[in-house]
Amino acid sequence: QAQLVESGGGLVQAGGSLRLSCAASQTITINSMDWYRQAPGKSRELVATISGGGITTYAGSVKGRFTISTDNAKNTVYLQMNSLKPEDTAVYYCHAVQIRPDGTWDLWGQGTQVTVSS
């Protein structure tokens, strides 16, 4: 079974940038890939999605600041985060809907902490 491994989180000042990466452990066929985040005491929320055809959608709170992209040759999805705000502080999770011969399969990464200081 494929696994997703995230990297790139850390501590940054407000207004700064970070790039998160999520690599699949093997070549997979996907329906879509997403980034979610969960702040302390809050439910997990969808941040950005990229379809297998490359169509992207964003939560209103990050539109214009975050960019999701993929490198299919590296089986990797990225989240470029610019103009970060303290309210962006959360654990960020990578998610993929894998297409397999026996149906679809949800894959989740382990999460990476992003902390934005004011």
Tell me how many strands there are: 11
Please give the count of helices: 0
Rg, please?
A: 14 Å
Alpha-carbon distance between the two ends: 40 Å
Task: Kindly name the structural category.
Answer: mainly beta
Helix content: under 10%
Low-confidence stretches: none
For the largest beta-sheet, the strand count, sense and barrel status come to: 7 strands, mixed
- List SSEs in N-to-C order: EEEEEEEEEEE
Strand content: over 45%
Described by the principal axes of the CA atoms, the overall outline is: elongated
Average residue pLDDT: 94
How would you describe this protein?
The protein has 118 residues and is mostly beta strands. The protein contains no helices and 11 strands. A hairpin with a 4-residue loop joins strand 5 and strand 6 (56-58).
